[in-house]
Specification:
Blueprint lengths: L1 E4 L2 E4 H5 L14 H12 L10 E7 L3 H7 L6 H4 L5 E8 L1 E2 L2 E2 L3 H18 L3 E5 L4 H7 L6 E10 L9 H8 L7 H4 L5
Antiparallel strand pairs: 1-2, 3-4, 4-8, 5-6, 7-8
Family: Belongs to the nitroreductase family.
Protein name: Nitroreductase family protein
Keywords: Oxidoreductase
């Protein structure tokens, strides 16, 4: 199924996906949907099939979840703890002494595939850049060749009407994108 956005039709899951900040703090994470999302990430394309991404998956209530939540910055720290799980996507920037120059790009693709599959299976997601990467690396004893790139909050959608005024306002803000003509530098 496709949806028209402007003058272009894109798949409905892409057109309707959004990054919520309102999660159901009582709902357990759907393990099947979580595993499907991880499997989708596993099948993301990567340079020379190097698959340079790794994930740290922490369910709400676990020690690992609390350790990740403690590294979140600013506004992220006020809502992300309601998610059913927090997932860190980590780029392996070097393997066997050889640099993997596309690791960040490839890890981003894995995170994107994860997010789209999770949304297709009815889970809410929100990727965050507001976290202390060095603290995460320290918390999970990651070597210098393993770089945390994003933390994804994932879980059941929460009740927006029961959320704080600030969260309600952010959730009500229309989802917009800049015009395609502003994004494409050359289209020959």
């Amino acid at each position: 199924m496709s949806t028209t956005t402007g003058t272009t039709a894109i798949h409905e899951i892409l057109a309707t996906r959004y990054s919520t900040r309102v999660f159901d703090a009582d709902a357990p994470i759907d393990d099947t949907a979580l595993n499907n999302a991880l499997e989708a990430a596993r099948w993301a394309p990567s340079a020379a099939n190097s698959q340079p991404w790794h994930a740290i998956v922490a369910r709400r209530g676990s020690d690992a979840f609390a350790r990740i939540a403690a590294t979140l910055k600013g506004f992220n720290s006020t809502w992300a703890a309601d998610a059913g799980a927090l997932v860190i996507f980590v780029a392996e920037t070097e393997r066997d002494g050889v640099a993997l120059p596309w690791a960040a790009y490839d890890t981003g693709q894995a995170a994107a595939h994860f997010t789209i599959q999770a949304n297709a299976d009815g889970l809410a997601t929100h990727q965050m850049g507001g976290f202390e990467a060095a603290a995460l690396a320290n918390e999970f004893d990651l070597p210098a060749t393993m770089q945390p790139l994003t933390v994804v909050a994932i879980g059941a959608f929460g009740d927006v009407d029961a959320a704080s005024d600030e969260l309600q306002q952010r959730e009500a803000t229309p989802r917009t994108r800049r015009p395609l003509a502003d994004a494409v530098l050359v289209y020959a």
